[in-house]
Each structure stands twice: as C-alpha cells, then as structure tokens.
Specification:
17% strand; alpha/beta; 4-stranded antiparallel beta sheet
Amino acid sequence: MKAIMVMFDSLNRHMLSCYGCDWTKTPNFKRLAERTVTFDNCYVGSMPCMPARREIHTGRYNFLHRSWGPMEPYDDSMPELLKNHGVYTHLVSDHWHYWEEGGANYHTKYNSYEWARGQEGDGWKSYLPDFPIPEHIDGKPGLWGRQDWVNRRYMQKQEDLPIAVTFENGLEFIHNNHGEDNWFLQLEAFDPHEPFYSLQEYKDLYPDGYEGPVFDWPSYHKIRETPEQVQHCINEYASVLSMCDDYLGKVLDAMDAYDLWDDTMLIVNTDHGFLLSEHDWWGKVMMPYYNEIAHIPMFIWDPRVKKAGERRRALVQNIDICPTLLEYFGVEIPKDVMGKPLKDTVDRDEPVREYALFGMHGCHVNITDGQYVYMRACDGGSGENNDNLKNYTLMPAHMKNSFDLEELRAAEFVDGFSFTKGLKLLAVPGTQKIASMGFPPTTLFDGGHMLFDVTRDPGQLHPLDDPQTEARMVKHMVRLMRENDAPVEQYVRLGLTAECS
C-alpha cells in the first residue's frame, strides 16, 4: 500500500470550480473531483499554519491548550508512527515555517525530507540593507518584506519557483518509488498562501489593467483599499491558485502514468482558507472564523473502496487524516487520537461526528453541526478575560523565536492533561501573542457571540437570534471541550462552566 497527500496552504474552497466557482480557472481540481470523493462538509480544527499541522500529525485539536509551536514530546506523530512500523515516509515542501523555531521538529518525524527555499521572506539570499524595493500597498516594512523582494530576483523562471521545485522533488520520489510498496509521500506547497506571487503567464489569466503599487501581500486588517486595489489582489490570489492547479495536474498525470490508482491512497487538502475582502477583512488570524476560512476543501481516493466522482456530506476535519492513514497502513491508532478514520465515510458517507470544534488559541471558540455555525467570543468582549489564558507546553517556542525570559519567569510546572503521557507541563501565562504581532486584542472578539445557519446563509451575512439553537450548540461545545480535556481557564474566558448542559 502507498499514500500521497498533496497539501496546499490557504486554499479557498469557494474559489474552486469543483465547489461551484465560475470564474477561476482550476480544471485539474475539477479533474481531481472526478477521480476522488469530494467532501462538502470539511472544517478546520486548529488555526493557523503549524497548529493545523500539529493536529494532522496527532489527530487531536491543538488550539485549546497552546498556540503556534513545535511538536511536543508526548505527541503521537502519524508519520513517525508509520516510520516506526516499516512505512517509508518522505516530506517535500516549500513551507518555510517548518524550519523556523516554532516548527522546527515536524520534519524530523519523517524518514527523509526536502525543502525548497524562498517563500514569504524566507531568509534565503543575502542582500545589503539599502537594497531598493518598490512601493507596496501595506509595504511589508522591515526585513521581512525586503527579504521577500530579494528572493523574487531568483524566481524569474517557472522552474525556479519554490512550488516548481517542491513538485519536481515530489514527482522524482514517485518516479523512483512507484514500483515499491509501503511508503507515504507528503507533497506540501506553501502556495496559494500570501504573498500571491506568480509569473506573467498566470497573471494573464485574470487581466485587470491595474497599474498601481505592488499589492499581492495583504496584511491582516479591515479593508481600507480602493475597489480596484481589492480586485487586483483577488486576481493575484486567483493567479497563484491556477498555478497550484497546474502542479496538481502533474501529480494526477503521474497517478495515471504509473497506474497508482490501483494501490495508492490520494488525499488533497489544506490547512485553512483566506478572507479576500469578504466580511470586510483580509486574512485568517484574529477575525471571526467565517466559512471562507473555516470551511475547507478535501478530496480522498481510497483504492480499497474505489469510489470516484462522488460527494460526501459527513462532517470531517483535518484531525481525521492521522487515523485515516494509520488505519490504511494497518498501524494501531493511539488512544489519544480524537479524529476518526474515514474509510467508511469515503465508501458510503458514514458519519464520524455530529459536531466539530474549531478555532485559534485565545480567539473565538467555534462549533458546527454542518448546518449551524456558532462562534463564542471571549466573555466581556474586550479581551480582559483572556488574561488568565496559558500556553501548556514542554517546547516553549513561538513562531519565530523562543518564549522570552519574562514569559518563562512567570511559568510554573503543573500537572498535565489526559493526553500528555503523565508528564508535568510548563503553564506559561501571558503568551497570547496576537497583540505583539500588531493585532489589537479587541478585534479578536468582533461581533461577540454569533450564530449562523450556513445552509440558508452560506455567506454568513445574517446572524440569528435563536436561543434554543444557541443553547444546543453551547451544550455540545462544552461537551467537546471536556472530551478534549480543555483547561479550566478556557471555560472562564468564554463565560461557560465545564458542567454546562
């Protein structure tokens, strides 16, 4: 048995032709839907990038206990479990956060790995401090934006783009190993994550006549640009999306050429979506997690059941990928895994859950049953009840650096949780780093508590006043938090109790 997971970052479900978009050019995603089962009710779990990847490894939510960070010593890692049971695991990626301090031990769980350099200000090529960069909307001031502009000098040909190098590495692995057995390839592209950089052949698919400052890297804030600028940035995203579609087609071509459909599972997924002016926002981090971010695409081909060109309504999440792959390769699923294997869901739309939680550490906690989405804001509305929120960890690192000395001086060892293998943990207060990244804490709770019927109002434009449904969603939110052994301060900050029913 073999398996390939093709993962894109910030892939917008609602902009794919196979999910009903009529203006983007994504023929290979349509082709993919014809060869796989398409999930219509897949939701994120933990946000953003590395929290989502941690739950793909572990099969359980990250966001209730800590923010962005490395794999923990007590984590069950799906690729490592496969590796330890004789399945060769290989990661190819240009997702540079794997090589920052806050993601530095994910790639070591695989037998081998390859990294394509240059995405999003990756410190790849050297430059002098006075290196000129053009005027940008949002500017990306400082070293990060300047570094990205330097890197682009080395990406002027298609074959030099990080996505091209990543897929070439992945296709080389498939070519070399298609006749072998017992391997898992994770082929992971950073695109279409911002900055939305592509070459002219893709920009020409979405001409708009724009002649203003460079605008392909929106910061996470409310819309303040002109309609022309907004549409141009949307078109820049669409250009990168069509580039991703082209590279997806190369994997489908390889599946055809080597007859891999007979014995190879194919999963195509993402970590989350991205707001491109919907709800008057750019981004994915501190605003309420509307469906453009939280309702994500997923496709699975399982050679054991051979279902293709069909759609599934069952409510699934990225935490289900871990047990799906472990079950596929005959590896025992650890007791701490909360996700469910999806073989029977792929086969006959067998449900695996009635409700799903999702969110980011310190922001709204959200729950859906597939029809309703309920967003629970921090009690008090201004963020003051977040003051007691803690990061529980034995790997004290943020995205780019270790926890600072003041944070660690305030930490204390506490008893762990049901899934921490009997280890005590550092409880680090005051690690809600959103404000230090330039996001005002009050924006984390925009809208307060909100309830939507996403079957009747998929754009989530009309919050409901429905106390009975809200009470039901709160009841199951508390139940799922208990099942995931959420710390007590999570209930306090949400104005809930663990006994709520």
